Amino acid sequence: MNRVALGAALLVSCSEGPPGETRSSSDTRAALPEPSASSEGEARSAPSTAASLGMPTSSPVASVSTSPAARASASAAASAPAPTFLRDNPACPVPQGQPHWSWRRVHKVEGLTEPAVVLTLDVGAKLDNLEKVLDVLRAERVAATIFLYTAELAKSPRGGDLVRRMVADGHELANHTVSHKDLTKLDLEAAGEELDGVERFVRGLDPSWTTRPYFREPFLATNDEIDALVKARCYRPIWFTVDTADWRDDANAENIEAAVFERRGKPREIEAGSIFIFHGSQAANLVALPRVIGRLRERGFGFLTLGAALARSSPPKKVSGAASP
C-alpha cells in the first residue's frame, strides 16, 4: 500500500474508534483544548510532530494528495481495514522501531523475547537525592525510563544539567506532568498544560529531545477525558507491574526490597517484561536500588528502557477487546 492509500485508511479508521473501547455519547476528543501557541512541542505542524517521534517528516496523513488519481487510490484503500495496532490513535505517528505499537495502557511489556525487565523512576523533587540515585544507576550500568515532573527542575539552576545527565547516561525521558497534580481535578485546559509544560522544558534544553510517547499520571488518577487528552498529545499511558512501595512514609531499604521480591508473604514470581516503579526523591532507594538490581541480575535478568523493551517484544496475541484503554 502506498503512502496515499495508507493515509486514507488511517483517516477512515479514526472515525471508527478504537477496538474494544466504550465511548460516551459525545466523543471527549472534540472537547480537548488546542495547545497554546507558546507550546514549542505542540504548536508545530504534523510533520514536525512526526519528526519529534523519530518518524519521517513526510508522514502518511500529511502527504495525502488531492489529485483525481490519488483520490481514486485512496477510495479503493479505504475499504481495507487499517492495521489494528494503529486504529486506536491514527492521528499520531508510530514511534520509530516499534513495529507492534499500540497506544493502549501498559502494565507490563508482553512478549519480550529476552530475560529483561524495565526500571522506571518518577522524579522531580529533592534534587540532591535524585543526583545520588543517578549515581547509583550509573555505577550499576542500568538505563531506566525516567518520568519527569518539572516544576522544581525548571526553577533550579542545576535542573537542566540533571536532565542532560540523564540523557548522557542513556536514560529515556518520559512525562509525569509539571506539578504532579491529580489531573482529574483540573479542567482540560489546565490538565493539557501540565503535559505541555514538561515537553516545553525538555525541548528548551535540546530541541531534538522529547518526552513522547510515554506518560504516567500522578497518583495513576485518570478518567475517560484525561485518557483522551493524553492520547491526543501522542502519549501512551504507562503503569507498572511491581510497586516498590518506596512512596510510603515508613519506606526503608528492607521493606522496599521485600515489596519487590515478595507478594502477600510469598516469593514473587518476576517475569520478563515486568515494569518496576521507583521514585528519585526517596533516600531509601540509595540502598534499595543496588540490592534490587543485584538480586534481579542473580535471577538472570538484564535491564532495558521501556522503548527498547517494547521494540524487542513480539506482537500482541489480541489487541481488540482489551480491557485497558
What does this structure look like?
The protein is α/β, with parallel strands linked by helices and 325 residues long. It folds into two domains: 3-78, no CATH class; 116-311, TIM Barrel (Alpha-Beta Barrel). Helix content is 36%, strand content 10%. It has helices at 3-16, 46-52, 68-78, 127-140, 151-155, 159-168, 188-205, 224-232, 253-261, 285-298, 306-311; strands spanning 116-123, 145-148, 172-175, 214-215, 236-237, 242-243, 262-263, 266-267, 275-279, 302-303. The strands form three sheets. Strands 1, 2, 3, 6, 9 and 10 form a six-stranded parallel beta sheet that branches. The protein has a two-stranded parallel sheet with strand order 4-5. Strands 7-8 form a two-stranded antiparallel sheet.
